[in-house]
Amino acid sequence: MAEHNPSPEYLDPAKIIKIFDALSHPVRIKILGILYENRQYISELARIMGISRPLLYIHLRKLEEAGLVKSSMEISSDGKATKYYELTHFDMRLTPQMLHEISKEINLEDEKSQ
């Protein structure tokens, strides 16, 4: 089989697991779809999604920890602070060989203790 050397970021098991975890909930997939179209502030995004702001924050935190979204605070001319969320630039490709390489780095004993 041909030798393939994926970039180190793709081989970081913790990063891959965070991304998979972030993408494992349909609400978070929907958030990504909305943010693909345009950045949003929290209240507007909660209205679009039809969920509470506290629940939305939980989902956004998972997406931010995985590096899929980022936030920025902006101050309007009247002094009101508004937090915006937007997609980060990412390009994910997953192959069986990459999963094989990642699996070598995973220690199941560490996972059992959590």
Describe what this molecule looks like in 3D.
- The chain has 114 residues and is α+β, with helices and mostly antiparallel strands.
- It has a single domain (9-104), classed as Winged helix-like DNA-binding domain superfamily/Winged helix DNA-binding domain (Arc Repressor Mutant, subunit A), CATH 1.10.10.
- Helices cover 54% and strands 14% of the residues.
- It is built from seven helices and three strands, in the order αααβααββαα.
- Strands 1-3-2 form a three-stranded antiparallel beta sheet.
- Strand 2 (69-75) and strand 3 form a beta hairpin.
- Helix 2 packs antiparallel against helix 5 (53-65).
- Mean pLDDT is 86; it is low at 1-6.
Mean pLDDT: 86
Strand order of the largest sheet: 1-3-2
**Number of extended strands:** 3
SSE sequence, one letter per element: HHHEHHEEHH
CATH class: Mainly Alpha
CATH architecture descriptor text: Orthogonal Bundle
Structural class: alpha+beta
> How many separate structural domains?
1
Number of helices: 7
Binned, the helix content reads 40-55%
CA-based shape: elongated
Main sheet record:
3 strands, antiparallel
GO molecular function, one term: DNA-binding transcription factor activity
InterPro entries: ArsR-like_HTH, HTH_ArsR_DNA-bd_dom, WH-like_DNA-bd_sf, WH_DNA-bd_sf
Organism: Thermoanaerobacter uzonensis DSM 18761
Pfam families: HTH_5
